[in-house]
Amino acid sequence: MLKILTFLRIAHFFGLPKLEFITNAIQLIMTLRVIGLSYEIADTREAKKESKEIHNKREKRFIIEPTTFEAFTYLYSFTGLFTGPYYSYQTYHDALHSEFLTKISVRWMIMKKMQTLSWSLPMLIIFYILSPVEMLKSEKVSEYNFFTLILLSSLAFVYLRMRIYTAWMIAESICICSGIGIYPLHCNSSTGFGPRNLAKLREESGLLDVEYDAETINNLDIPHVECSDGFRSGMRAWNKTVQYWLATFVYKRTNKSWRMPYTMFISAFWHGIHPGWRFIRTKGFELMACGFLLLSWTDTVRLWNGVYWWLHFTMIFVALGSYFALLFKRKFKKTD
Fold first, then answer.
1. Which of 2, 62, 102, 146 could disulfide-link to 44, CB 3.0 to 4.6 Å?
2. 3-state secondary structure of 308
3. Can you tell me where the transmembrane regions are (predicted)?
4. Which of 93, 186, 271, 312 is an active site residue?
């Protein structure tokens, strides 16, 4: 699947039509679903072979291996196909075979998404009119001073966040209306994974007098995105279903010695083959997000030249400082 994704991303270099935005978005979700389903099937087959060992471990759900038609309907399911969120075949199967979803009230879940839309959509329209991204792409960007470029980067990042917030609130609402990711609250569902308390799932599934939530397809933790104290916490609150996919199907299944760089590579590769995406608390996110928005080498480097690559040098100094501090700490312990 990654080979197909590679071909589609570089096809325009060989005279073929360029992968357009919507087509690219579909291809991204399809990649997640195909690889995720493959691992779900593999885990099910492995569990059958080692049923005695699995029985003694923590209880875990495995899918009923789908037919070709069932797999096709999951992979091409319209819900979430254009924008996400990613959901597993198990989650899709649960929604498809539930007899009670049409009777469960999801009004409060939808209203919660609409509350976010009530401010993200107007702000998106305002920042679309201001066009900070187009200003950063223009030739005049080299004429702006350092502080103007920092301000434009901040505005561009606000535009990106509002665009993502708006799109995902709508996408999550569609999932909720379709019954995807709806489980009893006491099941302790987590994003991407689904119910963790399987005893409560069996006990309360289908009951109308218990509370339900849609945490399984919750793709954003906006308060943590806006108030994060660092890159790690900010990224974990952003696009959470993809974070789950990377953790479950890449990070945990890779050799410990190189799992971190490999996971970061797969994440960058999945997002796209664009020079701006290769260079990726909020000032850092603002500058890096411009590479995500500008895409081309010329536009990205022109902007970063204007701000003297301050973030990149800062990160290098922090990394070197941490390395030497660790060496000093080890040396100090040995002398003691």
1. 62
2. coil
3. 116-132, 144-160, 262-280, 307-328
4. 271
